[in-house]
Design a protein that fits this description.
The chain has 290 residues and is mainly alpha-helical. 67% of the residues lie in helices and 7% in strands. It has 13 helices and 6 strands. The strands form 3 sheets. It has a two-stranded antiparallel ribbon with strand order 1-4. Helix 2 packs across helix 9. It is elongated and about 90 Å long. The termini are far apart. The relative contact order is 0.10.
Length: 290
């Protein structure tokens, strides 16, 4: 425990900070929130203005931003964090269709869910928002919250952690508006999401991610000769059978689909070329015979 001697981000802060310091505080706050949500997947889940502090060193123009009261945190799985990042990236870079597509991929559809209808409605909502993306008329936090409320009309649910994410975004946007009423959050966030994107596609990070799935790739390669042998046996046994019944062509099509899928998986995991090529050839022959 220690006492934070700082400045609360309210109207009184406008008298204590210069315009440059306020802009610096906005950039630090947005960068911190974007990184902890979309890069780390581990974030402050109870963020509100009272839990933010601005620190100003005496005699220095440089400031820093602090977060307090981290009694509640949010966590995203690796896959969810990546999808949410691509969603947020599409949103702030002005691609409403991609944003709607990534958001839909996170949906938990109910029995009467209309996923395609929701995707179209979300895309329309983001297109309208891009016309006036500012805090006063249509804030970033509002458009994200409205998209999740819209999901209810299409019988679609989302993980509860996402609402905590919205709360953090709304807070940092609201504080930013106090410091600068003309703030454009999408423009301010672009720099930070692009840095995360560069980190995501950094060759070293990609190599590390590939190492995580290496055991699965090795297992697929180890089993590929057995899968190929069994596939050829099935192919030979069915090749000599005379056509019988209306489902004969369907069986051949299903088997061809299996060979095509097996070949595609091996190709995706960089399996031996002769193995996935054989699967593709068998799939073509089966389909022709069907």
């Amino acid at each position: 425990m220690e006492y934070f001697h700082g400045i609360k981000p309210d109207q009184n802060a406008l008298k204590k900070l210069t315009a440059d310091q306020r802009r610096q505080a906005i950039d630090l706050g947005i960068g911190a929130v974007v990184r902890m949500i979309y890069r780390d997947g581990f974030f402050h889940a109870d963020l509100h203005p009272a839990n933010l502090m601005v620190f100003k060193k005496p005699g220095s123009k440089e400031i820093s931003v602090g977060f307090i009261d981290l009694g509640m945190v949010g966590r995203f799985t690796r896959d969810m964090r990546k999808r949410l990042f691509y969603y947020f990236y599409s949103l702030v870079t002005g691609d409403p269709e991609s944003a709607a597509r990534y958001l839909t991929s996170l949906a938990l559809p109910g029995k009467r869910a209309d996923v395609e209808g929701f995707r179209r409605a979300a895309s329309d909502l983001y297109t309208r928002w891009l016309i006036t993306p500012n805090f006063k008329d249509f804030s970033l936090g509002q458009v994200i919250l409205q998209s999740f409320l819209l999901a209810g009309h299409y019988h679609i649910q989302y993980p509860g952690e996402i609402i905590l994410m919205v709360k953090a975004l709304v807070t940092i946007e609201g504080v930013g508006y106090i410091f600068d009423p003309e703030i454009d959050i999408p423009s301010a966030a672009r720099k930070h999401v692009r840095l995360i994107l560069l980190q995501e596609f950094n060759p070293l990070n990609m190599l590390r991610d590939s190492a995580l799935i290496l055991p699965e790739m090795v297992d697929v390669l180890r089993k590929s000769p057995l899968i190929l042998t069994e596939g050829i046996k099935v192919f030979e046994s069915n090749l000599n059978k005379p056509p019988s019944g209306p489902w004969n062509g369907t069986r051949g099509t299903l088997l061809a689909g299996f060979c095509l899928l097996a070949g595609a998986l091996l190709l995706a995991f960089h399996g031996p070329w002769f193995v996935w090529t054989a699967f593709f050839v068998v799939a073509v022959l089966l389909e022709i015979r069907s």
